[in-house]
Structures are given as structure tokens and as C-alpha cells.
Amino acid sequence: MAPAATATVKTLKGVKRDIPFVWEGMDRKGNRVKGKSLAPDEATLRADLRRQGIAPSRVKKQSQAFKSGGKVNAGDIAVFSRQLATMLAAGIPLVQAFEIVGNGHEKPAMQKLILDIKMDVEGGTSLHEALAKHPLYFDDLYINLVEAGEQAGALESLLDKIATYKEKTEALKKKVKKALFYPAAVLVVAVIVTVILLIFVIPQFESLFKGFGADLPAFTQFVIDLSKFVQTHGFFIAVVAGAAAYAFIYFKKRSKRMRELLDRLSLKLPIIGPILNKAAIARYARTLSTMFAAGVPLVEALESVAGATGNIVYENAVLKMRDEVATGQRLQRAMENTGLFPNMVIQMVAVGEESGSLDEMSGKVATFYEQEVDNAVDAMSSLLEPLIMAILGVLVGGLVVAMYLPIFKLGAVV
């Protein structure tokens, strides 16, 4: 008997929502085959398999596995893009490539997404239309590039560019998150340690000091009063802080004015601000390079580039640039008018416009600023380590000194 193979099977769409199944069976040649498919129910899937000459021996519902498979993230989409580009470059047909990538993915939620797209493509839907049905995972830029590849008959080449673009943008996001996460995490730890000391440690010293029969130093008394306040109102403070954090996140997601204010402030922060500026420029240049290399007209490309900058200040600036370019203004001049781009970036774009190699020059700008972000994050980490240690020392050490001041005073009197 031949070894087990993976079959590509079309499933029927019913009125009910499709459920993922795994199945095994025998084909007309007596070979054992297996696969994963979507169907409204088990009976429909078995009937569909028989029509295709497969006698199913085992059909198992996998809906729970798909639900518990975790959330599909941007990193999963980047890996999927590279896998699909590699499959097509190897000459594997599109539907079969989806079958291979989907069945081989470890995350069930991603499997379901890929098999949903595969089934749409099998039904005659174009790839970009199938991807457009999943806007949470594939943005307009991704879909526009795929559509350009389909229209130009160069889907393999465009998918390779998309994969490279997604890989580089995800790497850049990780660097920026690293720059923001480290100080935030240490600050949270410092607050937690301070609260624990105020609630559990300081009261022990307070009971000890009551037997001294003398006035406490002002600093010690302040820490004890602070400890009593936290013990008495700690729950209320925690509720207020939680509500404030929830309100901040809620309005940040829903208020464009608030997002713009926060983005403007973030760009002006010391240390962090320059990194965010460089990251936005890198994303702008990388996206522009990818879109222009795909043959997307500049005005249309700038609309997609705006949303990819990751900062509403740059997004508004790029949309304004798009309007100026649409009226005949050169991209170089439109960039100068924003006041956001360094002279080096503007000159590189100008050279690209003059020589007809805007995609290549933008790619070089992106590579340069991606490296700049990487270097800035490493430098910031080195700078913040002693600063953070000093902050922790002041917080924790200050509490310890406050508790030992009365003991030192008592020793001096004795």
C-alpha cells in the first residue's frame, strides 16, 4: 500500500457555518489519504468525499481545536507570506500550496484561516478577493500588492516582495516594542516592590518604633503615614488606577484626536522620541519601496504608505503629500513641505525620482533607518540600565533608610 498522502478536497458550503474536520480514507487506487476540510456537518463532508472517489474511514470534528488555537498575529501572516512565496517559486500550484501550508501549520486558528482562503480560491475567487474577506489579518496594502501581482501575471514575484516587506516591518516593530517594554516593565516592578514594602514591611517597623517612646525623624514618619494611607485606601487607589487605564485604552482606540495628541507627544519624548521618528521613516520608506516596485502608481501607493507609518502624525503628513503629488507636485517637494523628513531622506528620494529608481533609493533609506533604530535601541538599553538601577535603589533604599533612621538616632543617644 502506498504511503499516506494529503489530498486536496473541495467541500460544499451549506447554509450553516462551516466546521473544520480532519479525515482519513482510501482513494480509487487503494492508497490511504488524509486531509483537513471545511463542511457544514460530517454527513455533507462524507458525501463530498465519496463523490471525489474517496471512501472515508474516519472523520473527526476539529472545531474545538481551531477555537483554542490562539490568536493569529502579524508574525503568523509574515511566515505565511514567506511560505506561500517559496511554494509558488518552486512551481507548486496555488491551491496545493495553500493545502500544504495550512495542513503543516502548528496553530489551529491559522490553519482555519488558510483553509478558508483556499476554499474561496478553489471556488473561483481571485486571491486578492479571498484575502479581502479577512481584513483583520490582511490590510489594504497587502491586498493591493496581491491584486497588482495577479493583474501583471507576476504573483510569485509580488508575494516574495510582500514576504520580505512583512518580515522587515515585523522585525522593526519588535525593536520598537523592545525599546518601550524594558523601562515600562522595570517601572512596574519598582511600583509593585514599593507597594509590598509599604503594606507588609513598614507596619512591622512601626510596631517596633512605638516602644521607643521618642519622636520619629520626619522622613520616617512620612513613610509610616504613607504606609497607613496605602493600607487604608489601597483598594480604592487600585480601582481608580484600573479605571483610568481602561478609560485611557478605550479612548485611545476610539478618539482620533487623542491618538494624534499621544503620537505627537511620543515623538517629542527624550530618548524614545528619536527612535519612534526613525521607525516611522523606516516604515514609510520600506512601504513606498515595496509599492513602487510592484508597479503601483505613486498617488495610490502613498495612500497605502500613510497607514503603514504607525504614527498618525506621519500618516496625516503622507496623506497631505498624496494630495500635493496628485496635483503635479514632485514627491521631494511634498516631503519638504511636511517638515518631518531629514534632508538626507529627501535628497535620496530626489535622486530616485530623477534617475527613475525611486523603489531602490527608498529601499536604501529604509535599510539605513532600520539599522539606525536597531543601534538606538541597543544604545538606549545600555543607557537605561544604570538609570533604572538608580531609580530602584532610591525607591527601595529610601524606604530602608527611613526605617533605620530611628535606630541610628537611638544608637547615637545611647
Structure description:
This protein is an alpha+beta fold and 414 residues long. The protein has 16 helices and 4 strands. Strands 1-3-2-4 form a 4-stranded mixed sheet. α11 (272-293) packs antiparallel against α16 and α13 packs antiparallel against α14 (331-338). The protein is flat, with a radius of gyration of 30 Å. The N and C termini lie far apart (95 Å).
Kindly list the characteristics that best describe this protein.
414 residues; alpha+beta; disordered N terminus
Please state roughly what percent of the residues sit in beta strands, choosing from under 5%, 5-15%, 15-25%, 25-35%, 35-45% or over 45%: 5-15%
Q: Ranges with pLDDT <50 over ≥5 residues?
A: 1-16, 64-68
The quaternary structure here is single chain
Percentage of residues assigned to helices: over 70%
Shape: flat
Number of strands: 4
> Which strand order does the major sheet show?
1-3-2-4
| Radius of gyration over all CA atoms, rounded | 30 Å
The SSE order reads EEEHEHHHHHHHHHHHHHHH
Main sheet properties: 4 strands, mixed
Structural class given helices, strands, pairing? alpha+beta
